[in-house]
């Protein structure tokens, strides 16, 4: 459907490469870097180049089909445009990204916009920390170390 929408709204051709990229972004439900998307897409379309991935990601962003987020390490991650606004939890150890919704963020954006006379058109929250798995691993490693030293 996104490929058909792309052709109607932009006049751009819906190529096999574009279909593969859009399918991967829609079906994975995760946040991928351009490199990750490239390698997954190569499994389906071996003649795809990394520059083609970047060009198409830019096109998809312009058309509102894909969102770009700078998450861990300042690297760009891409995801299919979500229907509901969401934010991101990013693990500093393993890079896992988890989405969450926060209606309060909409209220804050609206309130700050009114107070400052600023028309807020978008907001994004990224909370960085450590996922449950990495916390458990770290605690286990600390316990093993204290047992070893004690």
Q: What's a concise summary of this model?
A:
By secondary structure, this protein is an alpha+beta fold.
Outline the structure in words.
The protein is α+β, with helices and mostly antiparallel strands. The chain has 2 domains: 1-83, Winged helix-like DNA-binding domain superfamily/Winged helix DNA-binding domain (Arc Repressor Mutant, subunit A), CATH 1.10.10.10; 84-150, Ferric-uptake regulator, C-terminal dimerisarion domain (Dna Ligase, domain 1). Mean pLDDT is 81; it is low at 3-8. Helix 3 (34-44) crosses helix 4 (50-62). It has helices spanning 2-10, 16-28, 34-44, 50-62, 103-116, 132-149, and strands at 66-70, 76-80, 87-91, 97-100, 126-129. The strands form 2 sheets. The chain has a 3-stranded mixed sheet, with no helix packed on it. A two-stranded antiparallel sheet has the order 1-2. Helix content is 52%, strand content 15%.
């Amino acid at each position: 459907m996104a490929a058909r929408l792309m052709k109607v709204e932009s006049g751009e051709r819906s190529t096999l490469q574009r279909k593969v990229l859009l399918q991967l972004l829609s079906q994975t439900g995760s946040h991928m870097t351009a490199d990750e998307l490239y390698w997954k897409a190569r499994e389906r379309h071996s003649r795809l180049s990394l520059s083609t991935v970047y060009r198409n990601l830019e096109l998809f962003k312009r058309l509102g089909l894909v969102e770009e987020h700078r998450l861990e390490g300042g690297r760009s991650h891409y995801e299919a445009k979500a229907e509901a606004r969401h934010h991101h939890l990013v693990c500093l150890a393993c890079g896992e990204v988890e989405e969450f919704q926060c209606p309060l963020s909409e209220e804050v954006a609206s309130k700050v916009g009114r107070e400052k006379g600023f028309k807020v058109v978008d907001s994004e929250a990224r909370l960085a920390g450590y996922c449950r798995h990495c916390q458990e691993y770290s605690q286990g490693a600390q316990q093993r170390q204290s047992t070893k030293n004690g």
